[in-house]
Design goal:
Elements (H helix, E strand, L loop, with lengths): L14 E3 L5 E3 L3 E2 L5 H13 L4 E3 L7 H10 L8 E6 L6 H15 L6 E4 L9 H13 L5 E5 L3 H11 L5 E5 L7 H9 L3 E5 L12 H10 L3 H11 L3 E2 L6 H8 L8 H8 L18
Parallel strand pairs: 3-4, 4-5, 5-6, 6-7, 7-8, 8-9, 9-10
Antiparallel strand pairs: 1-2
Helix pairs in contact: 1-2, 3-4, 4-5, 7-8
The structure holds NADP nicotinamide-adenine-dinucleotide phosphate (NAP).
NADP nicotinamide-adenine-dinucleotide phosphate binds next to helix 9.
Amino acid sequence: MTDSSPVITPADVPAHPLADGTTIPQLGFGVWQVPDDQAQTATAEAFRVGYRHIDTAAIYGNEMGVGHAVRESGIDRSEIYVTTKLWNSDQGFDRTLKAFDENMARLDIGSIDLYLIHWAAPPLDHYVETWKAFVRLHEDGRVGSIGVSNFHQPHLERIIDATGVTPVINQVEMHPYLQLNDLRAFHDEHDIATEAWSPLGSGHGLLDDPVLVGIAERLGVSSAQVTLAWHLAIGNVVIPKSVTPARIAENIASVQVTLTADDMAAITALDNGTRYGSNPDTASFA
Ligand SMILES: NC(=O)c1ccc[n+]([C@@H]2O[C@H](COP(=O)([O-])OP(=O)(O)OC[C@H]3O[C@@H](n4cnc5c(N)ncnc54)[C@H](OP(=O)(O)O)[C@@H]3O)[C@@H](O)[C@H]2O)c1
């Protein structure tokens, strides 16, 4: 824990509109690779410095820790936005409905604001039936919003054609080296919000890029803050992860960083297609 007072309030984080009429805080807190027994502490620290949006998943094994932090935060549940995800082995109509109940039980916070299909997993070929179950959950009023993660354009087109229901968000790997302009254009055409996972490059050296470091030095901020400010400026929802209190605070403070048009152009020019995670066209983890 840091002793410094919070400098950002939740109101400083823009509310990003979603196509179903709800909003999502544009900057949230990711907890992938945070063990369950540390998730409560890390999430509590995130709440302390102003985050109100947490991104977890069944496969992260830390929904219980996140749920504890939400319940013990003293913050009204309506002011906190929680995303969780359905794991690939639970895809399929009936399995999805059962898995959703298990997500709910582990979180134990009364409701889930956003439920995502974690991966399209095309080799399994269950994602259309899975999306039908998501639509059922939403129609029955059991979940706030429904979306997907790691879907490419053909996967999105297939679920939209099959159900007439468009996911409100697609959470995909995205950062200055992987800008996915074609996918983002498709999202814009269909009113699908783009949410960036590994927005900081997940510790693989992106933050040492000389362009990002140069802008950061000129502005007197960090290259992580420059990177997050770029995401926010192009309209992405972002969910940086850290277990380091100083970085947790640093990352949310990126909402106060303003980049020039030249900075934006320089970062846009960094796109080189580098993918640190798996490719949604082929990944199934089965
Ligand atoms: N849908 C999906 O398939 C999927 C896949 C991957 C991730 N995600 C979501 O996206 C979230 C973020 O992605 P991610 O965890 O892969 O990576 P990330 O947020 O891009 O980067 C996290 C890494 O950067 C370090 N870091 C954080 N803030 C920093 C700062 N200000 N300066 C320097 N280093 C910093 C962290 O270290 P410390 O923690 O040691 O501080 C950690 O090693 C995940 O937590 C998860 O919620 C979703």
